[in-house]
């Protein structure tokens, strides 16, 4: 995990895979407003992904643009965290994933906005405003479900427990990076603990902590996601509308 | 030039047109714009519209640049832009209080009947920059350009 290219690639892949997963809810969300909300959040993630991958391609200097990086890499070459590739599952699982992701991305982009790299700083200052809305949206749902009926509480708690192990990977130290993810943990914990407490949910215990996404070692779910995302571009290289 | 998604105000009033400069030596026009949201799908149309307008005005080699910093803010929407939004039934954004923090919306007046008895239906609306609200007095739903 070295160099500005790897750093931009990691952030870009997180956003790209999160966008693709969230977009799967389109036409399937529990209510129309939520359908539109999840599609909008996916679009924000895609917007950040495009900027980050374009920049990563320039840093690499091998002539790869955003499309080459998104559509022509295999699973082992992706550097996203495992959290974003996990299936959407129950709606509560999607909201637990979105809460943890946005509670990580908001301080990350905020810190990035102050970093020495001008391009990354510009992307951070733009994306943090959007992340604030994502965090707000996920927080509302987690509170509504956690502090709702007996059944919604049970499922929200189960979802938080199910996804929690994947949080540790987000904060793997990388002291040489423009923003060291380890420095974001305290703010993440404060945000998430406050939301879970208000939602009458217990904060899951940390234990098993799967990782490997940053090294290209993914769960089996990523390959299926990539197959669907990349099929058109691979079947018809350079296709245009 | 009007915004392709909100066709009542110009890109200048919306604050996404950052500058228009002409190179004194070559006469080449450079237009700089910034997106409202990173994933705004209207950007390609806006770029094409600008090129078309400049082409018609006699600048076929005009360049359109996109910048992301400083990031667009709803505070950049002009007074005339706000009036036009309200007239079109879209509640204009309130001032942004602090960067990076979602401002607390106390009340929003219905752009149709003026009633403060309104409620938010969804934080995300028909485009990335809007939220969906409803007026409890006249029962009409309306868009709100959310503060960013």
Task: Please render the helix and strand layout as text.
The complex is a heterodimer of chains A (241) and B (148).
Chain A: H1 3-23, H2 32-60, H3 66-71, H4 82-85, H5 91-112, H6 118-146, H7 150-163, H8 185-198, H9 220-235
Chain B: H1 11-14, E1 17-22, E2 29-33, H2 43-56, E3 63-66, H3 79-87, E4 90-91, E5 118-122, E6 130-135, E7 141-145
Parallel strand pairs in B: 2-3, 4-7
Antiparallel strand pairs in B: 1-2, 5-6, 6-7
Structure summary:
Chain A is an all-alpha fold. In chain A, 64% of the residues lie in helices and 0% in strands. The two termini of chain B are 23 Å apart.
Report on the architecture of this protein:
Chain A: This is Phenylacetate-CoA oxygenase subunit PaaI. Chain A is an all-alpha fold. Chain A has a single domain (3-204, 211-235), classed as Ferritin, core subunit, four-helix bundle (Ferritin, Up-down Bundle). Chain A is 64% helix and 0% strand. Chain A has helices spanning 3-23, 32-60, 66-71, 82-85, 91-112, 118-146, 150-163, 185-198, 220-235. By secondary structure, chain B is α/β, with parallel strands linked by helices. Chain B folds into two domains: 11-66, no CATH class; 75-145, no CATH class. In chain B, strands 4-7-6-5 form a four-stranded mixed β-sheet. In chain B, a hairpin with a 7-residue loop joins strand 5 (118-122) and strand 6. The radius of gyration of chain B is 17 Å and the shape is elongated. The two termini of chain B are 23 Å apart. Classes of the chains: A mainly alpha (241), B alpha/beta (148). Chains A and B meet through helix 2 and helix 6 of A and loops of B.
List keywords for this structure.
heterodimer; A: 241 residues; mainly alpha; Ferritin; 9 helices; B: 148 residues; alpha/beta; 2 domains; four-stranded mixed sheet; three-stranded mixed sheet; 3 helices; 7 strands
């Amino acid at each position: 995990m070295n160099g500005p290219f790897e750093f931009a690639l990691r952030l870009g892949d997180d956003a790209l895979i999160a966008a693709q997963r969230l977009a799967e809810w389109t036409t399937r969300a529990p209510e129309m407003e939520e359908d539109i909300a999840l599609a909008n959040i996916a679009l924000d993630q895609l917007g950040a992904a495009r900027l980050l991958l374009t920049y990563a391609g320039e840093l690499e200097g091998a002539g790869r643009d955003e499309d080459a990086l998104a559509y022509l890499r295999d699973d082992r070459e992706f550097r996203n965290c495992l959290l974003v590739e996990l299936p959407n599952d129950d709606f509560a699982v999607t909201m637990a994933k979105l809460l943890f992701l946005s509670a990580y991305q908001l301080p990350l982009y905020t810190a990035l906005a102050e970093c020495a790299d001008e391009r990354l700083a510009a992307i951070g200052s733009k994306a943090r405003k959007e992340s604030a809305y994502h965090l707000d949206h996920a927080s509302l749902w987690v509170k509504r479900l956690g502090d709702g009926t007996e059944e919604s509480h049970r499922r929200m708690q189960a979802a938080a427990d199910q996804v929690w192990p994947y949080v540790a990977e987000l904060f793997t130290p990388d002291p040489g990076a423009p923003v060291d993810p380890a420095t974001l943990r305290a703010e993440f914990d404060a945000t998430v603990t406050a939301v879970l407490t208000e939602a009458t949910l217990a904060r899951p215990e940390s234990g098993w902590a799967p990782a490997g996404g940053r090294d290209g070692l993914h769960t089996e779910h990523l390959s299926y996601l990539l197959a669907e995302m990349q099929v058109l571009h691979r079947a018809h290289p350079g296709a245009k509308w | 030039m009007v915004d392709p998604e909100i066709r009542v105000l110009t890109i200048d009033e919306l604050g996404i047109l950052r500058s228009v400069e002409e190179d004194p030596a070559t006469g080449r026009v450079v237009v700089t714009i910034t997106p409202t949201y990173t994933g705004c799908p209207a950007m390609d149309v806006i770029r094409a519209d600008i090129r078309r307008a400049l082409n018609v005005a006699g600048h076929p080699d005009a360049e359109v640049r996109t910048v992301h910093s400083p990031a667009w803010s709803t505070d950049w929407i002009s007074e005339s832009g706000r009036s036009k939004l309200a007239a079109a039934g879209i509640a204009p954004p309130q001032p942004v209080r602090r960067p990076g923090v979602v401002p607390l919306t106390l009340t929003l007046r219905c752009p149709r009947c003026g009633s403060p008895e309104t409620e938010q239906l969804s934080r995300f609306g028909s485009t990335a920059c809007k939220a969906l609200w409803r007026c409890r007095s006249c029962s009409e739903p309306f868009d709100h350009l959310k503060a960013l």
